[in-house]
Amino acid sequence: MESLKGPYLFDSQRSEQVTTRAVQHVVGKYARRLHMPNLSCHALRHTCLHNLVKAGVPLPTIAEIAGHLKADGTPNIDMTLRYIKPGEEEKANAMELISWD
Fold first, then answer.
1. Which residues in the chain land under pLDDT 70?
2. Strand partners, 39
């Protein structure tokens, strides 16, 4: 397996890192090819953070991964909560946990 040229997850042939805009371009290209107009880097970010919650990762850890930090460097949980709202199916499943049969 080839190692990375630098400290970045995505490196490029021309430089040490791939730019944010380049990643957005690639995701947009595949979104068009797959006819998925809602697919974007931002949607993938929401999905990643949401999946971390579902996996049981503590909110302060998720906030740090997301870069949601207050001016004093502590995790900004309120910002993170905006990203991880449960879907309708998850709310229904939660209610099933306490349903009385």
1. 1-6, 101
2. none
- Are the C-beta atoms of 51 and 90 separated by less than 8 Å? no
Strand partners, 75: 69
Give the number of C-alpha atoms closer than 13 A to the C-alpha of residue 25, restricted to the C-beta side: 5
Q: How far, in Å, CA of 58 to CA of 41, rounded?
A: 23
Q: What is the per-residue DSSP string for 6-50?
A: SS-SS--SSSSS--HHHHHHHHHHHHHHTT-TT--HHHHHHHHHH
So what's the pLDDT on residue 17? 77
Give, in order, the Cα–Cα distances in Å from 73 to each of 37, 58, 60.
36, 17, 12
pTM assigned to the model: 0.71
Query: Which residues pair with residue 69 across a beta bridge?
Result: 75
Helix (H, G, I), strand (E, B) or coil at 95: helix
**Residue 76 · residue 70 · CB < 8 Å:** yes
